[in-house]
Amino acid sequence: MTQTSTATHSLHLKHRVTASRDRVFQAFTNPVELAKWWAPEGFSDASGEIDLRVGGIYRWSMRAPDGELYVATGAFTEIEIPEKLVQTWQWEGDEEVTELTLLFHDCGETTEIELLHKGFDDRARADKHEEGWTGCLQRVAGQF
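RESULT FIELD:
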């Protein structure tokens, strides 16, 4: 896993998984597959609703170890199957809206997931998301 963060309150992660690009894209866009990995270690009850079309809404939820429910929601603004997803990102009850871009690079027998999450109000929020996304990317790799 390689990680870099910029001073503009964004994060950029790359993670390689041993699976075809089609399978990895499916893991991010199929609610049944998403529920298997979307939540950092220690979280539970991951689930997702996904309307995979430009303008389509998604809603992903997970429960923290302390019992608090976290729900991320937004809309897809760009979709290139199986190469790219761009979507708005907002936690329910929070005013901050950020942008999440996921790129799926075909590397033969592996796929590199490139994640860019930008538009955070402050560095601490970006760092917290980096921690969460790092855990999620490690978990998705374990699905293949």
